[in-house]
Amino acid sequence: MASRNADSRNGGGSSSTIDAVSLAIIEQLQEDGRRPYAAIGKAVGLSEAAVRQRVQKLLDQGVMQIVAVTDPLTVGLRRQAMVGITVEGDVDPVADALTAMAECEYVVMTAGSFDLMVEIVCEDDDHLLEVINKRIRALPGVRTTESFVYLKLKKQTYMWGTR
For 5-35, b where at least 16 C-beta lie within 10 A, e where not — what string? Predict the structure, then answer.
């Protein structure tokens, strides 16, 4: 599975433009992250060695990652929530503390009603309550939290990287 890294999404990554061939390689990997380089090469018109070099360059530049994505329910993580957080003062220390928490899978600074939006993946409701009440609300600077518990996930894709 391929995706851009967090710095690339917020403008902090490489400023170089990705050419059409590299985008085609990314698309191939998004369809199947284990697709052989020879098959990708055939699809995009390059040799296996050239694909290998391009993939390594994309990885080294932080343009993409190749990772295994699990279904949280099948690995015992039965509760997910998005938590909106308002912060008093500097947002960075709170965001840094959240990124260090294993349960926080997605942390973004936002404009609007919340300063931060954090996706949390937990074992159950008790675990979610512990993370929000004992750990997030205890962080210096956290003023309020609002939780949006997931009832059913209808769509989650990682194909946006080449549009």
Answer: beebeeeeeeeeebeeebebbbbbbbeebee
